[in-house]
């Protein structure tokens, strides 16, 4: 790959996740502390990304991927998205804010797949080249979080304005990205193709069905962290919470690098179980940690993000790739993304908001140890069920299923 194209992809990926990291982690603090939204309202706001994750495959699979050059559609989505985020930063009441944020996420979520596909189009060996490009996205997220934390913008609408400005910059930058023409396929794309419904046949195999069910269930307690970790850390008085939370992305990079070593020694099932166990431990650390003698528990909960994310989500994607026959791999990945990032995260956002409201105190604070024990118990129950029901199919069997 020429160095100029590599630098363009580096910049694109950095800005893509800088935009997301500018608001996604800290939005709950702004909505709760500044706008006075209730927990359920905050949960619904975070659920907009899940709604968009369920709808965006239609856009990517049936429209953007077939009729428009990828760099042009990225330009339009990010420019319009930036303007919408500016409107969002001015909203003071829930319903207008929710509708505007939903409009934005419907534009933003497809760009995650589109930036990946544009990158793959430029690569001769995606397996080796893509991780190097993608890590710039994690760095962009880390930089955004540290800027928000250092400048103390967690309860300010400026975080949305920063995201808006960087989205517009990215939209303009997309003009100079390598030309990536739409796919010229003679076959008509159907809703069945987009939703990955052909992959439903894989559910006849017990282990895959248990994996899909477990993935859906574990996605529900997971969303407690994404929605309420930052409000929690700010409420108990952890200084520069947004900046400290980026340690989770640092650990994500580290564990991603050593995953091949763990694969050889542990196998799929053990890695999935370790990922689930990490979520249980994270929530227990949050339930009993504080900003005095037990601050280390808060840091441990944050640093577990690498295991939480890589050992479950990345391992799960690899499991699906191994399990599905070649012609169904894309459909199977689409199905698992719909189940987890879409339906699972939406239910988790809604439920976490209800739990936070239930344990709210009259003075505006919360009984956080009780709140965090709810997803801890939920994740532990799912862990036990998954450990007892899921059977890892030997690799030789998987290969046989493909032929």
- DSSP summary, beta strand count: 0
Overall mean pLDDT: 86
Helix content: over 70%
CATH topology of the largest domain: Growth Hormone, Chain: A
The CATH architecture of the largest domain would be Up-down Bundle
Poorly predicted runs are 396-403
Strand content: under 5%
Can you summarize the main beta sheet? none
**What structural category arises from helix and sheet content?**
mainly alpha
Give the overall shape.
globular
Number of helices: 16
Q: Give the class-level CATH name of the largest domain.
A: Mainly Alpha
Which radius of gyration do the C-alpha atoms yield?
21 Å
In CATH, the homologous superfamily of the largest domain goes by the name MFS general substrate transporter like domains
Q: What's the number of domains? A: 2
Distance between the termini: 34 Å
Q: What string gives the helices and strands in order? A: HHHHHHHHHHHHHHHH
